[in-house]
TrEMBL record:
<dbReference type="InterPro" id="IPR013892">
    <property type="entry name" value="Cyt_c_biogenesis_Cmc1-like"/>
</dbReference>
<dbReference type="GO" id="GO:0005739">
    <property type="term" value="C:mitochondrion"/>
</dbReference>
<keyword id="KW-0496">Mitochondrion</keyword>
<protein>
    <recommendedName>
        <fullName>COX assembly mitochondrial protein</fullName>
    </recommendedName>
</protein>
<keyword id="KW-1015">Disulfide bond</keyword>
<comment type="similarity">
    <text>Belongs to the CMC family.</text>
</comment>
<dbReference type="Pfam" id="PF08583">
    <property type="entry name" value="Cmc1"/>
</dbReference>
Length: 96
């Protein structure tokens, strides 16, 4: 019974690590895809402190809209599905 709990805990830990890695990959892709808007927002924000909130509202909204296209639950679920298929392919290839 104890071994089963430890195995399950390890498996959950691995799943969390994989999900963290996939989230990181998803965010990096989003920033890359929205690079032009990131630059526009950064340019607007340069030299500002509190005023960035209202002065760069348009750029921030455009950036967030773009980023959301690449960082939502459906994108993450698709990445998880692709990862699972890759892992299953590795397992079946190693058993041949």
């Amino acid at each position: 019974m104890g071994g089963s709990y430890v195995e399950q805990a390890r498996e959950n830990h691995v799943k969390k690590k994989v999900e963290e890695a996939l989230r990181s990959k998803m965010k990096a892709k989003a920033l890359n895809e929205c690079d032009e808007l990131v630059s526009k927002y950064a340019e607007c924000a340069t030299g500002r402190t509190f005023s960035v909130v209202w002065s760069c509202r348009k750029q921030a909204k455009e950036l967030n809209t773009c980023l959301h296209q690449f960082t939502n639950d459906s994108v993450l679920e698709e990445m998880k599905r692709e990862y699972t298929l890759q892992e299953e392919g590795k397992v079946s290839a190693s058993t041949i």
